[in-house]
Amino acid sequence: MIAADPVRGQADDRAKTRTQVCRHCGLPFGRARDLGPFCCAGCKNVHELLHAQGLERFYELRGESDAPPPELRPDTFAWLDPLLAASKPAENGTQRLTLDVQGVHCAACVWLLQELWNRERGAVDLRVNPALGRAEFLWKPAEFDLRRYLRVVERFGYRFGAARKRDLGSTRGLVVRLGVCFAAALNTMIFSLCYYVGLTPQDGELYGVLGRWSFALATLAVAFGGSLFFVSAWRGLRRGVAHLDLPIAVGIALGYGGSVWAWLARGPEASYFDTITIFVALMVLGRWLQERVLERNRLSLLASDGVDDLYTRRRRNDVLETIPAASIEPGDELWILPGDLVPVEGTVLGERATMSLDWITGESRPRTFEPGENVPAGSFQAGATATRLAAAEGFSASRLHSLLGSGAKPLGREDRQDRWWSRFATVYVFAVLALATVGFVFWLPRGLERGIEVALSVLVVTCPCALGLAMPLANELVHMALRRRGIFLREASFLRRALRVRHVLFDKTGTLTRGTLRLTERSLGEIEALDPESRAVLAQGAAQSLHPVSRCIHAALSRGGRTQLVQGLEVREFAGRGLELRLGARTWTLGNRAFVVGTDSTQAARTLFARDGVVLAALEVEEELNSDAREEVRRLEAGGLRVHVLSGDRDERVTRVASELGVDPERVRGALSPEEKARYVRTLDMRNTWMIGDGINDGLAFDAAYCAATPAVDRPNLPSRADLFYLGDGVGAVRVTLAWARRLASVLRANLVLAITYNLVVVAACLAGQIGPIAAAVLMPLSSIGFLMMTTLRLSRRTQAWTS
Asked: The pTM is what?
């Protein structure tokens, strides 16, 4: 069953939505938000950086619109140390290193990387390959710090990693085939033109020479380009599958054979080698279009699955060294710097540790671990100073290793429509052969030559261009439209599978929510009620702390403008407890109840702010929903889809977020382990589920779901397990992708109906003896051009803007 259109019947809603255009990426967005003329925080930050550093020419080079930049988790570049150690400086004092780069889309991206590079002292040369996503650096290590340059570039939305991408040879080989086939086709058409304008045997040796050259070039095109389809069709037949390449292969073989027969029997003017060569060239073009866009999207990500480039710091014999995570042994003393990933479960040594568990459990709020407590693998260090851990296990036994390593593609993602197309290909081939045979037998009494002519006309005029050319072109146009909206498909079958989606399952933290915290409206009111001095003290103290709650307070107080500086304020932070703020004889405290008033309470989630022991405010934080989450969930539900919320976070937090979104409580689950998430998906899935998440705890659910997507382009492993990844804030990409999948299906159905109608009409004319081989050879490329024009026009019409 095909899912209901998630955008159909909502013209009134769209009319009410005032569409704006993002000042940075140029994409439309339609909801009022606190970012001004920007669709997401990433666009706002990059726009400000470009103007602050005088890099406005980026917009001139980029064009009208581009995908929004992602907001990346800061990289600690631990993986860079062994690469620099292995890359020794040359005798002339320079050092060379090649890295993969993620996020390079156009010439403007290349210009920006090179412009930032040229501003650095000691930078010698930078070569960026945007097609492969690779950058080659040459610098003077005595004057230049590569790590500093990478940190600067990262702020613009680019990510670097070890050079692990393979220069995939599939499209490169197709480009060579394409060049050879089009060269053969153009030359053969020139030779054939001579016969069309009247070249005869009376004109001398040129008559035979051009015929032999046409035969040679057609043979080259069939052997070099047609073999692509012959091999694919033969492999399918050996497996008992009628591949979509089968009708194309049969058409090439029979058309070539018929043209050779006509050349030998009736002379070069009766052949149609030009038609065969251009047909082969167009089919190879279609295959190249189909492969190119997927390869481009895959290469836009870093290639590592997260294990190879996972490094950590280990202290051994009073020496701090950077080692691969795979080298960790039980008992090793690990030093986890702020922002670093904890690769194995470890026991806290020394002071308290603050860890973010959102990636591994979905828990939105950082947790404090006391000395002696175990920190789970997959946590991120969220404190201000390094944390020491004693490894409780080796990396091979780590929970993180098992989750990162379970990325095999499930067999359940086989597309039912693929089987339908296979059956169609079988019917198509046998129908063409049967009709050609009927024509031959019917006209045989009028002579062998006449029977062969009719059969050849049927074989030549029947055009599988709707399969071999119009379908790849349509896919290419849809992929391009999605790329411009920051949506990148990795799996060719996804747009077909998306038509079956009935259940959309969202992870909570980082997907429906921004993954950040904010003060509740009540807490903002309590801050506003503070006296000016206490508010200024609170603002200055929060600004000097990296704790997530302090960041929320600082953001709230900074939003209204500049805060007053308090001279002489002493700030002390007690890890995992709170802040002590002293000004003369007065003392303010900010932290948990035990720290502020000396007693514990069931209201531990509240952060208290007190002066000399008197509580002035009780502050609470909540997750910040993506600005479009409510509207997008409503539209998906209105379109006939069932939205589910799955999370590893606590039940009450998940329920609160789902309630704000209007999701049926029966389709909400909290406190789920990765295995429980996958089990929920499997019990629901009838090849109609789509899982969207951003944490490694979503990986098993990705494997269980029929379709999978992620916004987490800066996290290891997950993008490589998804069918697509998307950039920018919000979840509007889900609805947009479904709408484009339906539009593509509509165009392909129309093409197929038209192709069947065309073939029935022209085959009937051939069987009636009205169309001969030469006329059929002219009709076939003309029909191909017609399909291309129709496909382009239908998919290039102005569409509904993505209002995210």
From this structure: 0.69
